[in-house]
Structures are given as structure tokens and as C-alpha cells.
């Protein structure tokens, strides 16, 4: 009974962990190796004259992978987020910093091995049998399913127009309206498959770091503009980023706005240094009546302006936190006393406890806002640029 309980515990821990699937034959050997490695790690002691430092490059890669995984989960589903996490972990082993534009090719079978027991969750995206009879889940292994999911993430299967998709109805409906026009992953060229069941696991894919980073920047810029200037301004910015230079008439047509509203909005955005104005004269005299006025977006300049705006917001949050703490200086001094720490309920009044709870909630909200702004700065400045 004890042996059965131990095996069940090991299986449960293996299922919950996000590591490579271990075979039952060498599980005991792996446990002994892990225990020996743990003992060696515990025995290591640092001398007083030794210096340690943070590996910022590796730390930034962890943050980037976390952002990619979260955005993939938001745009697709949980299973796609798990596949993306495994793919990013495999690609991270051969990277040194954030300068890589694409990752090394990774096979679908390697992703399945990295998923371990969680690879069974991938099957929940697929029906047991398609209505047209072209797909049967029993004839597909996990490598084929992961390869098909990566093909969808690589925009090789347009779910918005395809009626024969193998995915379960509604499994990806949440993200259909949020799919980016550029692929998260791309398939390696000259993939040669032998055909038959299981051949999909040999297909290799790459993570498009630079292309996806560009889409994250565009989405973040659109969100910031929408929060500050409104949804119509965000629509104008997206049109200009996609179309390039446009005059006010064509811009009003694409944005489905009146010419008057479009002109006023463009002037407002130009004053806020969001869009730029270029004059194209018809003649050499440069008469205003014979000049084209084209609106466009200098993306690098816009990123710089948004970075300065976010820095100002961070400064305001720091000042706000400091001001809130100064206003309750007497209460904080009382709370930090040793006797009050041991018995807050008895030595603090009802009003003081309520005020302290309100202060903690407010400071927590402001700190979370600071972290979100720091995440936005990381997306704008630290992620790789598409060359």
C-alpha cells in the first residue's frame, strides 16, 4: 500500500510539474541524481571575498517569455499558452540575450517531450471526429496535434474562414478577433515529412521574436492612445500605421468619420506629438492652396514620446505614494511600535485600523500600477526590433 501511494504521489507531482516526461524505468535513477545534485547545492558555501551579480540578460529573457506566454494565452487559449511556454523554454537554452530576432528551429516532438504529462491537455482542443470525416483524433498522436496548433499560430490555417478546421467549435472563439496579423511562430522552410501518422512531430518551428515584439508594441501604442484620446484616435493611429501617409480626405474615409471630425482629431493628435504632418507642394511657389498635407506616424519618435509620458506617470505614482505615507506618518509610527505589532486589535482604535487598511489597499494599487507601467516600458524599449 505504501508503494502504491508513493507511485501515485510521484505521478501526481510529475503531472503538475512542467518538465520533461520521465520513463518509469529510470525514474529512480533520476530521483537519486536530483537528490545528489540537491545535496551538492546545499553544501556550497560562498566565501566572504566572493562577489555575485544579477544576470540581467537572462532575467530579461524570462520577462520576455512570460509576456509572450501571457499574450498567447489571451489571444488563443490555455493549451496554446502551454505549448508556447514549452517552446520558449527550449529556445532559451541557446540564447544569450534579447538581440535574437528568431529562435532556433524546434521540432513538435521536442515540445511534446517538454510538456510531459501536460501534453494530454492539447487533445482537449480537438474533437473526437470531424463532421466531414477528414479528421479522427484516435489516429493522431500528440506530436501531430502540437504541429497543427503551431500551424494555426503561424497563420497557416485561417480559422476565421476555414470550415474544415480540426479544432473543437468554440475552443478558439475568444481570440479570433484578437489574432495579430503576423505569426507568433513560423515553420522552418524545406520541411520534408515522410507522411503518415506521427510525421507531424518531425516538423520544426521557430519563434518570431522581432515580428511578435513589433505587434506587441503596436497593440500597446493603440491601447495607450485609446485611453488618452479615445477610440476614434486609436482607429486613426492604427490606420496610419498600416497605410502610411494619408491626407485628411482619405483618412476620414478609412476611419469612417466626417471630414470635419477627422481634421479636428488629426490636429489634436498632432499637437500631442502622436502623428506628424508632411507638406508636399505641387509647385515651386509652395502656396498652401496648391500643397498636399499628409499625416503619418514616425514610430520611433512616437515610442520615445510614449516612453517619456510613462516615465512621468511613474514619477507621479512615486510622489503619490510618498505623499500618502507622509499624511499618515503618526499612524505608521504607532503601528511600527513593538507593543502595537504584537497586539494591533487591542492598541489600535477602530478608526485607526480602518485607516490603516485603506492605506495598505491604496499603496498596493499604486504599486501594481507602477509594475504595469514598467511592463509597458519593457515592451516599448527592451524587446527586439524588426530590422
Automatic annotation (TrEMBL):
One of its GO terms (molecular function) is single-stranded DNA binding. It is found in: Nucleus. InterPro entries: POLR3C_WHD, RNA_pol_III_Rpc82_C, RPC3, WH-like_DNA-bd_sf. It holds the Pfam family RNA_pol_Rpc82. The keyword Ribonucleoprotein does not apply. Residues 221-297 form the DNA-directed RNA polymerase III subunit RPC3 winged-helix domain. Residues 20-29 have a biased composition (Polar residues). One of its GO terms (cellular component) is RNA polymerase III complex. Residues 30-42 have a biased composition (Basic and acidic residues). Residues 7-124 form the RNA polymerase III Rpc82 C -terminal domain. One of its GO terms (biological process) is DNA-templated transcription. Keywords: DNA-directed RNA polymerase, Nucleus, Transcription. Residues 20-42 are annotated as: Disordered. The keyword Nucleus applies. Component of the RNA polymerase III (Pol III) complex consisting of 17 subunits. DNA-dependent RNA polymerase catalyzes the transcription of DNA into RNA using the four ribonucleoside triphosphates as substrates. Specific core component of RNA polymerase III which synthesizes small RNAs, such as 5S rRNA and tRNAs. Belongs to the RNA polymerase beta chain family. This is DNA-directed RNA polymerase III subunit RPC3. It comes from Puccinia graminis f. sp. tritici. The gene is RPC82_1.
Amino acid at each position: 500500500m505504501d508503494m502504491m501511494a508513493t507511485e501515485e504521489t510521484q505521478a501526481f507531482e510529475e503531472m503538475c510539474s512542467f518538465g520533461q516526461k520521465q520513463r518509469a524505468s529510470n525514474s529512480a535513477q533520476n530521483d537519486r541524481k536530483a537528490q545528489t545534485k540537491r545535496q551538492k547545492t546545499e553544501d556550497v558555501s560562498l566565501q566572504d571575498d566572493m562577489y555575485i551579480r544579477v544576470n540581467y540578460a537572462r532575467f530579461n529573457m524570462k520577462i520576455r517569455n512570460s509576456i509572450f506566454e501571457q499574450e498567447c494565452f489571451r489571444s488563443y487559449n490555455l493549451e496554446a499558452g502551454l505549448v508556447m511556454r514549452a517552446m520558449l523554454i527550449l529556445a532559451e537554452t541557446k540564447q544569450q540575450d534579447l538581440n535574437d530576432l528568431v529562435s532556433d528551429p524546434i521540432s513538435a516532438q521536442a515540445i511534446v517531450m517538454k510538456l510531459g504529462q501536460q501534453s494530454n491537455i492539447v487533445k482537449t482542443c480537438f474533437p473526437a471526429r470531424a463532421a466531414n470525416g477528414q479528421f479522427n483524433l484516435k489516429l493522431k498522436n500528440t506530436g501531430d496535434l502540437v504541429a497543427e496548433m503551431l500551424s494555426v499560430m503561424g497563420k497557416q490555417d485561417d480559422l476565421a474562414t476555414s470550415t474544415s478546421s480540426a479544432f473543437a467549435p468554440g475552443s478558439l472563439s475568444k481570440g479570433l478577433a484578437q489574432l495579430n496579423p503576423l505569426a507568433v511562430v513560423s515553420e522552418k522552410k524545406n520541411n520534408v515529412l515522410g507522411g503518415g501518422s506521427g510525421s507531424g512531430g518531425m516538423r520544426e518551428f521557430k519563434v518570431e521574436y522581432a515580428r511578435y515584439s513589433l505587434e506587441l508594441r503596436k497593440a500597446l501604442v493603440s491601447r495607450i492612445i485609446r485611453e488618452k484620446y479615445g477610440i476614434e484616435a486609436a482607429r486613426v493611429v492604427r490606420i496610419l500605421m498600416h497605410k502610411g501617409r494619408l491626407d485628411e480626405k482619405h483618412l476620414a474615409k478609412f476611419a469612417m468619420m466626417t471630414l470635419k471630425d477627422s481634421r479636428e482629431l488629426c490636429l489634436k493628435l498632432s499637437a500631442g506629438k502622436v502623428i506628424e504632418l508632411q507638406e508636399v507642394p505641387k509647385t515651386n511657389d509652395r502656396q498652401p492652396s496648391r500643397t498636399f498635407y499628409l499625416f503619418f506616424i514616425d514610430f520611433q519618435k512616437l515610442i520615445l514620446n510614449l516612453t517619456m509620458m510613462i516615465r512621468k506617470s511613474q514619477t507621479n505614482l512615486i510622489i503619490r505614494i510618498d505623499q500618502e505615507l507622509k499624511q499618515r506618518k503618526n499612524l505608521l509610527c504607532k503601528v511600527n511600535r513593538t507593543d502595537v505589532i504584537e497586539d494591533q486589535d487591542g492598541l489600535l482604535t477602530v478608526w485607526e485600523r480602518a485607516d490603516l487598511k485603506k492605506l495598505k489597499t491604496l499603496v498596493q494599487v499604486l504599486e501594481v500600477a507602477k509594475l504595469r507601467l514598467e511592463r509597458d516600458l519593457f515592451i516599448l524599449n527592451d524587446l527586439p526590433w524588426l530590422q
